Amino acid sequence: MNASGWRTIGNEKAVAALRRALDGDRLSHAYLVTGPRHVGKMSLAIDLAAALNCDGSARPCGECKGCDRTRRSIHAGVHVVGLEDGPEGRSRTLIGIDQVRAVQRETALAPFEGRFRVVIFDAAERLSDEAANSLLKTLEEPPPQVVLLLLTSKPEALLPTVVSRCQLVELRPVAGGAIAAALVDRLGMAADEADRIARLAGGRPGWAIRAAENPELLTQTDEKLDILEEVVLGGMADRFAHAAKLGSAADRNREAGRSELDVWVGWWRDVMLVKEGLPHLAANASRMESLSSVADSLTRSQVAGAISAIRETKSLIERNVNPRLSLEVMMLDLPRVRQP
Hints:
By secondary structure, this protein is an alpha/beta fold. The chain has helices at 12-23, 41-52, 65-71, 97-107, 129-140, 160-164, 176-187, 191-201, 205-213, 215-233, 236-252, 254-275, 288-297, 300-318, 323-333, and strands spanning 30-34, 78-81, 117-121, 146-152, 167-170. The protein is 56% helix and 7% strand.
C-alpha cells in the first residue's frame, strides 16, 4: 500500500517520485500519465490534484477540505476533460477544440478555490488534431499555478510535440497481492473473494474495485466466458454468429467490444499458462476443465497466435475499423480446437 493519503494502489515508484517533487517544490507544469486501462491513472491524477490543494502537513492528507472536495469531484480548481456528451446529448468520439478552448479560458484566471488549477485530460489519445495543436500552445506557455495531467493508455497516438512537453509517469500492472490487500483493507472483503477478484483483474486495480462494488460485473464476466467457450469449441457458424452479435454491440459502443476482448485475451493467456505447466497462475481458475482441454488440443504457437489475433482485433476496433469485419477475420484466425 502507498503512503498514507495516497489512494493509488501499487506503482509505489511513481507515487514516490511525485511525492519528492511535491516536497521539493519541483513539480512540472504538465504530466503524461501512461499505463493500461483501469491500472489507476485517474486515481493517481486525483491524488496529485488533492495534494496540490491540500491544507495538511503530509500532502495529500485525505482529511482536509481540499482533499475531500477533490475526491468528491466538487473542487472548483479541479477539472476533468473527457469524452462527455456533446451537443444534443450525443456521445463524443474525440475531445474537441471547444473543450480545450474552455480549459484555456478557465486556466487564464487565478484559482477560485485552492492554490492550483488542475486540469485532467482523460483518454488524452482521443484529442482531435485541432484540439491537440491548441493544447500545445498552453503546454508551451503554461499559466502560473496550473498543472495539466494527460492520461492515456496509448501515448503513441499523441502528437510527439505534446508528449515532449510533458513529464512522463508510467504506471504498470499491479501485483495481485497488492490489489487483494486493498480490497480487504478498504472494502472489508473476505480474503478468498478478494484474491479471486484480484486474479481476474489482471493487474488492473480500477477493474477490481468496480467488480468488488458491483457484483453484476462478475456475473457479466462469467456470462462472457460461457459464450467464449461455446464459440471456441464450436464450429465456424457459431463463430460468425457471435462476430455479428459482438460487432453490432461494438459498433454502438466501442467500450463493449474492448471489454469483451479483454476477457478473451485473459482466457487465452490462461490456456498458455496451463500449457506451460503453470495452472496455479491462471486468473480463471474455475474454468480449469475447459482451459486444460484446449491446452491439450493446441500447440504453443497456436495459443500464442490466438492471443495475437485478439489483441490485433482490439486495436483495430479502437482505431474505428469496422468491428464486425475485424471480428470475422479474428474468428478465422483463431485455431480450431479438436474435440475429445
